[in-house]
Amino acid sequence: MFHGKMKAVTFSYDDGVTQDKRLVELFNRYGLKATFNLNSELLGLNGCLVREGKTVSHIKNPPSEIKEIYRGHEIAAHTLTHPNLTQSDEAEIIRQVEEDRKNLGVLAGYDIAGMAYPCGGVNNDDRVAEIIRKHTRIQYCRTITSSHSFDIQQNLYRFNPTVYHVEWDMLFTLAEDFIRLNPDEPKIFYIWGHSYEFDVQETWERFEQFCKLIGSRDDIFYGTNRDILLP
Fold first, then answer.
1. Under a CB-based contact definition with an 8 Å cutoff, are residues 96 and 85 in contact?
2. Which three-class secondary structure state does DSSP give residue 9?
3. Is 6:183 a contact under the CB 8 Å cutoff?
4. pLDDT in tens, 5-26
5. What percentage of the chain's residues is helix, strand, coil (to nearest 5)?
């Protein structure tokens, strides 16, 4: 149960790009909470990405602004430099995760508890998860595998989100299902993505419609990943 409620909504966004500022404003407007997963050694770097034939900004927020940008939300790890951990040895996995956690803790002003696995495709496995569990102070890790489910999961080191936000039809269908749900056991609606993706197809307004739909409901608890996964 989440502060006396059976339903909880949380969001998780990766890379720490400047579009996060606009996203935080949206979340704050509708009473939503999110976790932002950052690469501490990439903060402040300029860049761009080409997605669906369109070039979009991929500029990382500077270290000096991190605490203020994400105030009221959660900062979590995403490794130092965004490698695929399944292709790394044990020592490098530990370094990438634990040093990122420490660096971000200094910037945030609190201990970092969670992380999201970097890279697309197969970006996690049981070996990596067990190394993180045994040799770092990270307490949960999010994958990129959509479950399309609201059920509580037991393995916090390979925690699957409900839906990737670019699955637009599924996103709204799941939201309607979650709103109608009157469960007798706790349920979680967990959405993830990257804020720069809203620039690709200019879907900021569409996502605001989603935030308005799912937000500000008396029977739902709105929390960061940490609030919901580590009560």
1. yes
2. strand
3. yes
4. 999 999 999 999 999 999 999 9
5. 35, 20, 40
